[in-house]
């Protein structure tokens, strides 16, 4: 039996080890609280080539540890992946819990109601892309 584990605790189900398809994972850390961001919906899309059409592959929500563990594997010919993080509901909920002021953009209270990250993928490789999030900014990087 193959141990498809990655360093972030997710499994590749053997797909990436075959060298034919990429795998993608993410997690979100709310840097304003120093804690994971649970309950954020993450949308996964893929395309073939820089001018290809985006195809929605699925979505999942971050767990209590801020991790998204059940994103689908991109198709074999994928060259680019897009992660869409729906942050508006998270910030609205967090603001209500903390009873704190937050930047106002309409009635939502979220300055960044969504974050979209597009990156290139290579066949057979695992791509872990964490999001560091705060009410006034965000950062992403290629993790391991």
What do you see in this structure?
The chain is mostly beta strands. It has one helix and ten strands, in the order ββββββαββββ. The protein has one helix at residues 88-98, and strands spanning 23-30, 35-36, 41-47, 55-61, 67-68, 80-86, 115-120, 126-128, 131-134, 137-140. The longest helix has 11 residues, at 88-98. The radius of gyration is 16 Å and the shape is elongated.
Layout of strands and helices, then pairs:
Blueprint: E1 23-30, E2 35-36, E3 41-47, E4 55-61, E5 67-68, E6 80-86, H1 88-98, E7 115-120, E8 126-128, E9 131-134, E10 137-140
Parallel strand pairs: 1-8, 1-9
Antiparallel strand pairs: 1-2, 1-5, 3-4, 3-6, 6-7, 9-10
Offer a few descriptive terms.
144 residues; 1 helix; 10 strands; mainly beta; 6-stranded mixed sheet; 4-stranded antiparallel sheet; disordered N terminus; 35% strand
């Amino acid at each position: 039996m193959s141990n498809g584990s990655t360093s972030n605790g997710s499994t590749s189900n053997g797909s990436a080890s075959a060298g034919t398809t990429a795998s993608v994972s993410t997690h979100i850390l709310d840097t304003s609280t120093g804690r994971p961001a649970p309950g954020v919906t993450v949308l996964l899309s893929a395309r073939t080539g820089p001018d290809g059409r985006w195809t929605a592959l699925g979505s999942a929500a971050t767990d209590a540890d801020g991790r998204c563990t059940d994103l689908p594997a991109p198709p074999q010919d994928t060259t680019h992946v897009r992660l869409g993080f729906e942050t508006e509901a998270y910030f609205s909920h967090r603001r209500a819990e903390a009873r704190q002021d937050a930047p106002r953009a309409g009635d939502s209270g979220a300055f960044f109601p969504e974050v979209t990250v597009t990156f290139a993928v290579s066949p057979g490789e695992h791509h872990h892309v964490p999001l560091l999030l705060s009410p006034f900014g965000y950062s992403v990087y290629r993790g391991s």
